[in-house]
Amino acid sequence: MRVRLVLAAGVLLASAAAPLAHAGGAGGLSAGPALDGPVLNGPLLNGSALNGPVRDGHVLDGSALDDRAPGSRAADDLTVYGYGTVGDDSTVTLSGMYRCLDDSAGPVFVSSTLVQGNRSAGIGGTQAVCDGHLHEWVNTSVVKDPAYRPGSARVRATLMQLTADEEGLPTPGFLAAEDAAVVLR
After folding, report:
1. pLDDT at position 145
2. What are the Cα distances from residue 168, in Å, to 2, 6, 36, 69?
3. Which of 49, 159, 179, 185 can pair with 78 through a Cys bridge, CB separation 3.0 to 4.6 Å?
4. Quick one: pLDDT band at residue 73, thresholds 50, 70, 90?
């Protein structure tokens, strides 16, 4: 019973913490260096690595490794595809790619928030597989109010790990983030 309570609290905390990460933290706290550092601006996210042919979450042409020194490890990465979909029933689907290295300290999730005009809503969440390989994430949610329409929007995605604090309560740690312009189809 205690494990279920802690897991439920973790999911609720993750849902509440994701918008804080997108807002740059709360109460003067930063969401961490991953939001500003080279992980988000490096060749893995801005180069051709994530645009190459992908099968089963792996880039086939090896371009993700091109700009790394021999023997160096990849970093936690996250990117958002330049499009999303809005169904006739108001189902919103967003997607992208991620890589995380280690989930031994706690589960890792990909959360996303869709912003269009003055509307903002969390769009699902995906538990990440942290094996050092690229994987696709897809988050889906039915959003009736506020309703989204085809056209330009922004997606704020976060790769977040839940770890236990001294009292055993789950605490979010932000591994990577991406704020991207998208077109809803």
Report:
1. 82
2. 11, 8, 29, 38
3. 159
4. low
Hunting for tokens 């983030």 — which residue is that? 177
Q: How many residues does the chain have?
A: 185
- Alpha-helical runs (H) found in 23-163: 38-41, 43-46
Confidence of residue 146 (pLDDT cuts 50, 70, 90): confident
In the chain, the domains with their CATH numbers are 77-184 (2.60.40.10)
Please give the Cα distance from 133 to 73 (Å, whole number). Answer: 11
At a CB cut-off of 8 Å and minimum separation 6, what does 112 contact? 80, 94, 122, 123, 124, 125, 139, 155, 156, 157, 158
pLDDT at 25: 41
d(CA 142, CA 94): 12
- Model-level pTM? 0.65
Q: What is the pLDDT of residue 133?
A: 97
Provide the Cα torsion 158, 152, 148, 54; round to 10°: -50
